[in-house]
Amino acid sequence: MLSDTLFTKLLDLCCGAFLLAAVLMLWRRELAAEVRAFTLQGVALAGVAALIGLHETRWDLVSVSVGIGLLRAGALPYLLRRALAGSGTPEETQPLVNGAGSLLTAAALTLLAYVVARPLVALNPNPVTRALPVGLAVVLIGFFVLATRRHAAAQVIGFLLLDNGITAIAFLAASGVPLIVELGVSFDLLLAVLVLHILTTRMRDAFGSAARIDDLQGLHD
């Protein structure tokens, strides 16, 4: 069992890296760089789950953290890189909001998350619940990515970012989720990325490169 002081410091470090990875996804424009930031976030999320499990002597959470690390810091980034390599578009198309605007929005959403989560933290103030706003901030940033990115792969990354935030909230608010639930969600994410890989391969064969969302909207005409 970890001491309270060491647990708090390590948890703050993992949560800081978790939020930083989300901000990096907004700041960087290259899809490959976003995948690397997503990998960092997967490692941080696995660290959060492992720390809570070790501190509370819950080996089921430690097992879940290993699964999270293998999937969200290993398998999913690998499949995303394969999908990008097959799309023929290594860089992201221009998003609807520029880099400075995205960073300012991320700061505003993080502040909003801390304000909204304050009553929940006040119910049971401890190192774990005090980190709850970080998960909520990542959820809001994930919604922002989905609303402002045009490339299909970037929107999938935004969806994965959103799911990471929801998973972090589950760990920080309720000390994790059952292993079977986490496995079900993880397989859904794996299926989504596999579908992305197949679609980008098909689009490359048909059009020469993966199209933007704006280009796909013209196919119904």
UniProtKB/TrEMBL annotation:
It comes from the Bacteria. InterPro entries: HyfE-like (IPR038730). It is a multi-pass membrane protein. It is found in: Cell membrane. Keywords: Cell membrane, Membrane, Transmembrane, Transmembrane helix. The chain crosses the membrane at residues 6-26, 38-55, 61-80, 96-116, 128-146, 153-173, 179-199. The keyword Zinc does not apply. This is Hydrogenase-4 component E. It comes from Streptomyces violascens.
